[in-house]
C-alpha cells in the first residue's frame, strides 16, 4: 500500500532538501502520494472533509516539514487542529479513524544533531522536543513511529549533503 506524505513547507520553491525529497518521491507514484498543503491550500483554508477522506485511504502517513523554532510550520499545527476533530479522530463511537495507522515525521533540521542533546546548545533531544506530536498521535490511537531527521542544513546545504539524505529518507519510508 502507498504511503501518504503530507508536506508542509511555506516556501517549497526555495527549499533545498524538502523540494529534493518531493522530487524523489514523485519518481515512485506506485509507492508514495505527496500532498503539499501550501499548494493545495494557498489561502490556508482547509477543506476538512476532503482531508479526512484522504487520510482514511492510507495506512502509512508521514508529515514532512522543516523543523525550526523548535516546532513545525504553523500551517501543520492548523491542519492538525482542524482535521483531527472530535468524532472523527477521537471520542465517540465513530471516532478513531487514525487507529492503527502508522504515522511519523520527516524533518529537515538546520543545526547539527549534537546540538540537540543534554550537552548541546539546546539541552533537549529532538525526540523530547517532538513529544507533543507523539502524544497527539497516541491520543488518537495511531501507531506513532520514530521520526526521520536530516540535520545540519543551516551549515551545510551543499548538493552533496542534500543528496546524502535522499537514500536515507527513502529507506526510512520503506521501513515505516
Q: Low-confidence runs (pLDDT<50, min 5 residues)?
A: none
Largest sheet: 6 strands, parallel
* Percentage of residues in strands: 15-25%
Total domains: 1
How many strand elements?
6
Give me the Rg, rounded.
16 Å
- First-last Cα distance: 12 Å
Q: Tally the helices.
A: 7
Fourth-tier CATH superfamily name: Flavodoxin domain
Structural class: alpha/beta
The overall average pLDDT, rounded, is 95
CATH architecture: 3-Layer(aba) Sandwich
Shape: globular
Helix content: 25-40%
What string gives the helices and strands in order?
EHEHHEHEHHEEH
* CATH class bucket: Alpha Beta
**Could you name the CATH topology?**
Rossmann fold
Verbal overview:
The structure is a single chain. The protein is of the alpha/beta class and 176 residues long. The chain has a single domain (3-174), classed as Flavodoxin domain (Rossmann fold), CATH 3.40.50.360. It contains seven helices and six strands, in the order E-H-E-H-H-E-H-E-H-H-E-E-H. The protein has helices at residues 17-25, 37-40, 48-56, 74-83, 126-129, 131-139, 159-174, and strands at residues 3-7, 32-36, 60-67, 102-109, 143-144, 148-150. Strands 1, 2, 3, 4, 5 and 6 form a six-stranded parallel β-sheet that branches. Helix 1 links the parallel strand 1 (3-7) and strand 2 (32-36). The longest helix is centred in the last third of the chain and has 16 residues, at 159-174. The termini are close together. The model has no long low-confidence stretch (mean pLDDT 95).
Give the key terms:
6 strands; six-stranded parallel beta sheet; Rossmann fold; globular; 7 helices; single chain; about 20% strand; about 180 residues; about 35% helix; alpha/beta
Amino acid at each position: 500500500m502507498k504511503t501518504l506524505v503530507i508536506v508542509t513547507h511555506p516556501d517549497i520553491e526555495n527549499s533545498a532538501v524538502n523540494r529534493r525529497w518531493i522530487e524523489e518521491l514523485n519518481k515512485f507514484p506506485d509507492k508514495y502520494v505527496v500532498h503539499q498543503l501550501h499548494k493545495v491550500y494557498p489561502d490556508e483554508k482547509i477543506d476538512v472533509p476532503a482531508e479526512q477522506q484522504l487520510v482514511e485511504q492510507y495506512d502509512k502517513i508521514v508529515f514532512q516539514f522543516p523543523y525550526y523554532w523548535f516546532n513545525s510550520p504553523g500551517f501543520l499545527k492548523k491542519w492538525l487542529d482542524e482535521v483531527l476533530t472530535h468524532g472523527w479522530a477521537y471520542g465517540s463511537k465513530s471516532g478513531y479513524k487514525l487507529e492503527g495507522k502508522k504515522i511519523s515525521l520527516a524533518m529537515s533540521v538546520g543545526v547539527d544533531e549534537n546540538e540537540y542533546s543534554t550537552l548541546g546548545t539546546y539541552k533537549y533531544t529532538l525526540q523530547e522536543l517532538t513529544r507533543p506530536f507523539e502524544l497527539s498521535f497516541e491520543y488518537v490511537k495511531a501507531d506513532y513511529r520514530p521520526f526521520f531527521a536530516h540535520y545540519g542544513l543551516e551549515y551545510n546545504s551543499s548538493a552533496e549533503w542534500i543528496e546524502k539524505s535522499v537514500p536515507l529518507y527513502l529507506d526510512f519510508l520503506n521501513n515505516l
